[in-house]
Model the fold of this input.
Amino acid sequence: MNRLYQFYCRNSLWGFHAGLLAGAGGFWFANYFTHKPAYLDYAYYVLILTIFSVLIHKNQQGIYEYMHMNRDVSHLPKRQIRLINNLFLMGFLLLSGGTIFLFVHLPYQNVVNGIKTCLIAVIQWIARLLFRQKPVESKEVTLPDVGQAFFDLPRSEDTLLYAAILDKIFVFIGVICIIALGLFILFVLYKKLTTRKGGMELDTREFISPKMTREKTLRSVPGEKLHFFERSTEGRIRKLYFRTIRRHLSAKKSPQSSMTPSQIEELAALTPDDALTQLHEAYEKARYDTDRCTREDLDRAKKGTSGLLS
Done:
């Protein structure tokens, strides 16, 4: 069973899924030539089965690759991760499958026709607004005798007023969307300009001991990246370290995320001395230690930075 699961996760199974799609196509052609609705239902069911099979396969592939990548991590809750993933996947399949099954047996043709009618009406209204050469002549509308409340509806002479109101509303929505897009672009540019390659985005919080407890590290978790507005003692020490490293790195050199502090300092061609030792020790405690950094550690990092930048 384990070998079968490994084969299922390691291979793409495109041939199996292509065969299912071919079967759905075969049922569709059978319905086209024989005019039997049952074949169309079979084609629909096989198509849905193919979609679900692809989703399940991709989900299990992702879980398998994640577990395989972290196979040497002893404190990873693998059983809990698999259980939660399978529960969510089962719930999704049940909900989506039930919805699709009900959708097939509902009289949705009227809904589709109603949507088509609304879309055609909107397109015609937009075309009249864009390509109108002269005001539309008003025509008297004769309403059926269905009640006094329906006679209070707006007549055709008010069409231009409603068109102008809708035009103002669409212009307002368009301006809001343009402003939101501009703010989003400015935010992305700001993030790009304030985060340099080889700097803080490569500095991740790591722990040497796998027996780390959350009570000791309320400020951070393993793998957490250093944010630009990080103002904790550990974050300030790590910023000082990479600010110093960037000053000594040449334009063609860039540290990798897998490098240790000693390798980064060697890449920056820093000469070992007392200032580098102070900064190195403070940074190692801020990045690897499970205990909180103190004010003395921050002062030591500042002294080391001043000595290296002077």
Observations:
- The chain has a mean pLDDT of 76.
- The longest helix spans residues 159-194.
- The two ends are 65 Å apart (CA to CA).
